[in-house]
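Please annotate this fold before class:
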Amino acid sequence: MIDLTTGLAITSEDIVRALGSEPPSFIKDKDNKVEFAFGFPNMMYTLWGYVCTYRSFPSQSAFVGYYHLVHEEALKEYDKTAVSARLLRSYPSLAREIHFFQLVKESNAFNDVSYCSYDDVEGGIDFKVMMGGNTYNILCYVETPRALLFRKKKDFRHMNSILNAIEMPLNLTKGKKIGNWIVYDEAQVDLLLNKVINYAWVHYKQHPLELLSS
């Protein structure tokens, strides 16, 4: 697999600046043809396409504009406003996930932190951390009815249970605010570290001091 993050000088602060450059914008329009489209161009792949092309993280409006540009042919049969509405709703979770990945990576709390877009899109694994010789699969989502429903659909779609899965739900009332955006913060990185340490103790009998000194 290609690690899209290799060589990209994107930091968590770059993502924060992109989010803070404009307030969230949403459109109420919904079209079932768009919402349940089979083979709809993948948003996460497209977001990483922007990052790799422009070597920067897009604002919400830049992401929507780029998506329409690169998928113009594939989107001809769909209502443009309805497509934009779906993209605008999805952007916060996409940005939040990548920001948390970067935040965890920058913390140096783990032996390794890695991201693979294929594992994310096809396997439901948002990113991975390694500690004490074991790899842990991190699952991020927010605690809203829509997000929890999406998480259930994602789990059902991938069917196979994810080994060494560490769930990281985010209560939007407790996240870090950037204007009207909400992202994970350093406290969530600490929580992730504690969850991994507890998991390693229960499942691998690895003592916390052994992990922290590795």
